[in-house]
Amino acid sequence: MEAIKIFCPATIANVSCGFDVLGLCLDSVGDEMYFEKRAEKGVVIKEITGADLPLEVEKNVAGVAALALLEKLQPDFGIEITIHKKIKAGSGIGSSAASAAGAVYGINAICGYPLTNKELIYYAMQGEALASGAPHADNVAPALLGGFAFIRSYEPMDIIEIKAPSELYATVIHPQIELRTMDARSVLKKSVSLQTAIRQCGNLGGLMSGIFLSDYDLIGRSLQDEFVEPMRSLLIPNFDRLKQVALENGALGSGISGAGPSMFALCKGKENAQRVALAMREVVADADYANEIHVCAINPNGVKELR
Ligand code: ADP
Question: Is the separation of the CB atoms in 118 and 145 below 8 Å?
Answer without folding.
Answer: yes
